[in-house]
Amino acid sequence: MIDAVGARPRPRVEGGREEEILEATVTVLAELGYDRLTMDAVATMAKASKATLYRRWSTKADLVVDAISRAKGCPMPEDVDTGSLRGDLIAMSCGDGGFTDEVPMSVIAGLVTALHRDADLQKAFRERFLAPRQGISAGVYTRAVARGEIAPDADIEMLSVTLPAVIVHQAYILGEQPTEELILRVIDHIILPAARGSQAR
């Protein structure tokens, strides 16, 4: 099998060891942050050899992005269709892998500063972690447009990043763990009124 850039993927670790290594990577990342995370630290946590890690992941960035994309502690939010924009946003944001999930938020906190300095990490993070989640969000707003919940003059691009932007501000600027109450306030007082566009004014 050939990957997106034409290179053959490295062999997977046999059995359940790969998942154990990914889980260990998430744990170390949450505890130490990206800069202090090392292959040695992950190998120790996973009770594996560094050789095992390097056979599967050539760099720390490869391992970390694979871990946060696939490990059980960072599940992909489900692509839900509740029949309304409000329902979809709540289900997507408050369930497993959503903003109220403590593990993913602590993990992303360990990457925030490194993403600004490490171009390879940033590229891999955008393509393999953010892009699938942005695809789910795009689907939510596309369905809302089809249902007529979003006015023609509403800025959908800005709408789609508003909730994540507020959550990031709360978590990484104010140091407050996102709550379901906060998510509902943003949805009900910012996103839904904005979605109605000039109809709400």
UniProtKB/TrEMBL annotation:
Keywords: DNA-binding, Transcription, Transcription regulation. GO terms for molecular function: DNA-binding transcription factor activity; transcription cis-regulatory region binding. The keyword DNA-binding applies. The keyword Transcription regulation applies. It comes from the Bacteria. Pfam families: TetR_C_11, TetR_N. Residues 38-57 bind DNA. Gene3D superfamilies: Homeodomain-like, Tetracycline Repressor, domain 2. Residues 15-75 form the HTH tetR-type domain. This is TetR/AcrR family transcriptional regulator. It comes from Kribbella antibiotica.
